[in-house]
Design brief:
heterodimer, A: 239 residues, mainly alpha, 12 helices, B: 353 residues, alpha/beta, Rossmann fold, Alpha-Beta Plaits, 2 domains, four-stranded antiparallel beta sheet, 14 strands, globular, disordered N terminus
Chain lengths: 239, 353
């Protein structure tokens, strides 16, 4: 059964173009602008954090894998066919989320690899960004599962998630520069799981592990709450 | 070996086995041998189901299905066909009444019962991005098949549904009929004892429809699989069903074989056959045929009265063909007439006639 869920996600070629191709183009174009505007700046460092910004935003869009997969399995005629099988329906949900997480994570790693190949950033502790991104992916796919159960349609779920991705990215300072004041600085660091991941990665890079762990802790705590909510809500679809 | 009606011990088991071997060839697929007249697979008794505590979807529904029979479940949209099916499979809880499936009380949690049922959903439920082969592999594995046995079974099923040559294409490239056949194939892999087909021919061309109907008939004949076939295409149900249940507003309003049901609403059946060169001696032959109540010759027209529901037209035509038939009129009630008379509705759209 696992193989087929992997196949379903891997065969979504349009998804790969959007989730890999688009951020790569955006990073490339932005870096070209940066290189022309500030030729003496540490372009590798800029590329790394710009890349992290796009990774964290497209990570949220990646929740589409879970929402679309679960829509087919639980909110279309497939529901009866799968429920008629001698397999507990929870397995379909868990497998869906698992493979959506793996594929989404691998896509984001390709973006990270592109940054290192193209711009050779010299950033310490950058490897710690990988588990943070992985946790973020798992969180996002869980969020996708909760939202699709609530709204029952992938298009609606994706609208909600897109709003969160863009709103969260703006507040985290990824899309536009925010004013430098206490409130905005607080929002930049703590407004959403996107901010928490950025907070973690920035502090790990700076060698401030305690603050890095704070971001991870917030993410894990919220994920636990989300997972509990999913467990309760999923009874509606997998009972 | 199935349990036999002789389980009282009066007949030794080995004798029954030997008797079976002589008189009943092994059933293809299941590997079992049957000597029972008919084994009851499904028994629904007084089943009531309300949606949201209000709308009555099943209203004291009684239904029985025996091993190896094709049962047609006829009813207009919203009559309760799909609800009845979902209750049998255990996909929904009923409010009261009992449902026995393979001798076990269906309560929705006995998943092993589901492994003996194949469900063909009303809508095509195959994954469009996976090839037909991958779809069959997926559904086979869901039902516990694996390895070489699964691959062999996929080959068999692909041959049965006529998709062997296009097995590695994705269903997106298939016609509607081919998708429907794949949809059926996915429910056959695990060789279920009961196949439930919920409107399996909706929206496909006549050629594919005929293929599916022939296939269903052959499947029931070859494997002794019981089949519940729901449709609002009366001619389909009439063509393939051993017995028919007519359901309306959640309860069974009539049941029986097609001729039985027709007999309920019709008196005699009248056939008029015009020929070029009539001869009196043909009347004698016609009168010897079973179900012929009366036959007479009026000029060039043989007028024959048959018992209601008699299926004699082929024989009559064969008898009179030497006299050059020019016209045949058969005034026989159809299942559609039965339904119309019983419910006051047409089946196709459920509208009040």
């Amino acid at each position: 059964m696992f193989r087929f869920y992997a196949l379903r996600v891997l065969k979504d070629y349009l998804g790969h173009i959007i989730f890999i191709g688009l951020p790569l183009v955006l990073i490339y174009v932005n870096m070209e602008i940066q290189a022309n505007a500030n030729p003496d700046a540490d372009l590798g460092y800029i590329a790394f954090f710009m890349g992290i910004g796009f990774i964290l935003m497209f990570q949220v869009f990646g929740a589409a894998y879970t929402t679309e997969g679960m829509e087919v399995d639980f909110f279309t005629a497939f529901k009866d066919r799968l429920r008629a099988a001698p397999v507990h329906p929870a397995r379909f949900m868990v497998t869906n989320m698992l493979y959506s997480s793996i594929v989404s994570f691998l896509q984001l790693m390709l973006i990270l690899a592109f940054i290192f190949v193209m711009y050779e950033p010299s950033v310490s502790n950058w490897g710690l960004a990988i588990p943070v991104i992985f946790l973020g992916v798992v969180f996002t796919q869980t969020l996708g599962a909760v939202v699709i159960i609530l709204v029952k349609k992938a298009s609606k779920a994706q609208a909600v998630i897109t709003l969160y991705a863009i709103g969260g990215s703006i507040l985290a300072g990824h899309i536009i520069g925010l004013p430098d004041n206490t409130v905005m600085n607080f929002l930049e660091d703590y407004s959403s799981p996107i901010s928490w991941q950025r907070l973690s990665i920035e502090h790990f890079v700076d060698g401030d592990y305690a603050m890095g762990m704070l971001g991870i802790g917030l993410l894990l705590g919220t994920w636990a709450v989300l997972l509990t909510a999913l467990f309760r809500m999923s009874r509606r679809v997998v009972a | 070996m199935e349990h036999h009606s002789t389980s009282s011990g009066l007949v030794p088991e080995f004798f029954i086995e030997e008797y079976d071997k002589c008189h009943y060839p092994p059933v293809k697929g299941s590997g079992r041998i049957s000597v029972e007249v008919m084994k009851m697979l499904i028994r629904m008794k007084d089943v009531i189901k309300r949606y949201n505590g209000k709308r009555l979807a099943l209203d004291h529904l009684d239904l029985e299905i025996k091993k190896g029979e094709v049962v047609g479940l006829l009813g207009p949209n919203g009559a309760g066909k799909t609800t009845a099916i979902n209750a049998i499979v255990g996909l929904l809880d009923v409010d009261s009444g009992s449902i026995e499936v393979f001798g076990e009380q269906q309560n929705g949690s006995n998943r092993h019962v589901r492994s003996r049922i194949g469900l063909v959903t009303q809508e095509v439920t195959v994954y469009e991005t996976l090839s037909a082969y991958e779809n069959l592999l997926f559904f086979g594995k869901l039902y516990g098949l694996k390895g070489e046995a699964l691959k062999r079974r996929i080959e068999e099923v692909a041959t049965l549904i006529g998709l062997k040559d296009r097995l590695h294409e994705i269903p997106k490239k298939y016609s509607g009929g081919m998708k429907r056949r794949l949809n059926i194939g996915c429910a056959l892999l695990h060789e279920p004892e009961l196949i439930i087909m919920d409107e399996p021919t909706v929206g496909i061309d006549p050629q594919s429809r005929n293929y599916i109907l022939e296939f269903v008939k052959q499947l029931a004949k070859d494997t002794e699989t019981a089949i519940i076939y729901t449709s609002h295409y009366i001619e389909e149900v009439q063509a393939i069903s051993d017995r028919v249940y007519i359901i309306d507003e959640g309860h069974i309003i009539a049941k029986g074989t097609v001729p039985e049901l027709i007999r309920k609403v019709q008196g005699d059946q009248h056939v008029a056959i015009d020929v070029k060169q009539p001869e009196e001696k043909a009347l004698e032959t016609i009168r010897t045929l079973p179900d012929v109540k009366e036959a007479r010759l009026e000029k060039q027209t043989f007028r024959i009265n048959l018992h209601a529901g008699a299926d004699l037209l082929d024989k009559l035509i064969a008898t009179l063909s030497p006299y050059t038939i020019t016209n045949v009129q058969n005034e026989q009630a159809s299942l559609e007439d039965v339904f119309l008379m019983l419910t006051g509705k047409t089946l196709r759209d459920g509208e009040v006639s």
